[in-house]
Amino acid sequence: MDRFNAMLVFARIVELGGFAKAADSLQIPRASATVLIKQLEAHLGVQLLHRTTRQVSPTLDGTAYYQRCVLLLADLEEAEGLFRSHQPKGTLRVEMPAAIGRLVVFPALPEFTGRYPLIELEIGLNDRPVDLIREGIDCVIRAGLTVDDSLVARPLVQMDQLTCASPAYLRAHGVPQSPDELSGHQVVEYFSSVSGKRYGLEFQIGNEVRLIDLPKQVSVNSAEGYLAACVAGYGLVQTPHYHAAQLVREGRLQEVLSEHTPPRLALTALYPAHRQLSPRVRVFVDWLVDLCSRPASGFRRAKPS
């Protein structure tokens, strides 16, 4: 029995919740995965997995063994990386908001793939919550506060935001010159599909954030839908600069209250602690940090000359 290979298969089964998914991700026959786990359990003398027709989950011994496995596998990958002369390779699974992928990452991605041609990227574009361990995701990019202490958080950038609305909406409701003139206006409300939290307008006034609640006719739970509703004339929105900049240039949206800016929004790369030493994850996150720092990324507004 190849013990390290058996440990890798076992860890992937725990992360993905099944033999078939683990075998597919490792590109091995399902029967081989089953044999390796039986050999591993026989070698250790304990049952590592609970098996039912619907799911596979670790036993108490399996959970303890998994925690040691991921540390050992990370150490092994790091040790091999120190002595390998070739570039990082293999599949890297990444999740990110659709707008960031479309407007920021994909236009620059040929630079990354040209530098690391042996890395195969699987990129999911969505705002949904993901279980990185269970779904086998290596890295996720998220905007806003991060509260999962089980993940390593790498700050990417503090994004400038702007307040805007469609020209048609502003013709009908007027152009506010200060937050005090927002009476009679309405917002497109954004709500989190995870927490259910609903977001109105926020303005940075000195060291404090001022919250303003306005009526709404439409609420959405996706960044793309949020701007689409704004373009359709349903009210004011606040969004990262990179997301609305093109629509503002095209005249489909108009910025308002530019002297009263919303607070900046954090953008963060998150990945499981046991993958922080993976060369694939490391080079990708390093590239993201550099990409987000560039003026052309659009995350920060150009300062008037």
From TrEMBL:
Q: Which GO terms describe its biological process?
A: DNA-templated transcription
Listed InterPro entries: LysR-type_TF_proteobact-type, LysR_HTH_N, LysR_subst-bd, WH-like_DNA-bd_sf, WH_DNA-bd_sf
Q: Does the keyword section mention Transmembrane helix?
A: no
Q: Which UniProt keywords apply?
A: DNA-binding, Transcription, Transcription regulation
Domain (HTH lysR-type) spans 1-59
Which superkingdom? Bacteria
CDD domains assigned to the protein according to its UniProt record, in alphabetical order: PBP2_CrgA_like_3
Gene Ontology terms, MF aspect = DNA-binding transcription factor activity; sequence-specific DNA binding
Whether Transcription regulation counts among this entry's keywords is yes
Q: Which family does it belong to?
A: Belongs to the LysR transcriptional regulatory family.
Protein name, as recorded: LysR family transcriptional regulator
Whose protein is this, by species?
Answer: Pseudomonas helleri
